[in-house]
Hypoxanthine phosphoribosyltransferase (Fructilactobacillus fructivorans), 179 residues
Amino acid sequence: MNDDIERVLYSQEDIAAAVRRLGKQLSNDYRDKKPLVVCVLTGAVLFMSDIIRQMDIYLDIDFVDVSSYKGGTASTGKVELIRDLDSDVSGRDIIFVEDIIDTGRTLQFLEDLVSDRGANSIKVCTIFDKPEGRVVSAKADYVGFNVPNEFIVGYGLDYKGFYRNLPYIGILKPSIYSA
């Protein structure tokens, strides 16, 4: 897998430092709120497990699965709910944990979903933000790294289901996905 990477953007150590920083910030901001932390499957699983261990507060967790990529390198433009939340979000403070925000469509879909169900507040924590990819107005409240408009993999991010287990973030060689 490492041979498929053009270059490493963020090392395992870089990511760990960002996770610690974000965990501390979230702990401070949610000290007395007992938020529901929602992992956006599947890419955010690694980040979610790391970030909640850095949060020194009472919290609940849940999972939601949405899809707009269908295994490719670009969004289809349509967000589909694959797995809904198990938790009642009415009156709750929600923190969505995302791997990457690109077009913003998934984020907009999720914010609308829990807003319509009566969430008290909605915040988004993402380890990677790609503002150049936005096609809708969407913004993360907590960001680990702003990333270039390149196809990146690792630390939960995949191409056709592979590369999620790389401990770093790298730019995938174009020859891999254009073949």
In short: The mean pLDDT is 94. Helices lie at 12-29, 45-52, 105-116, 174-177.
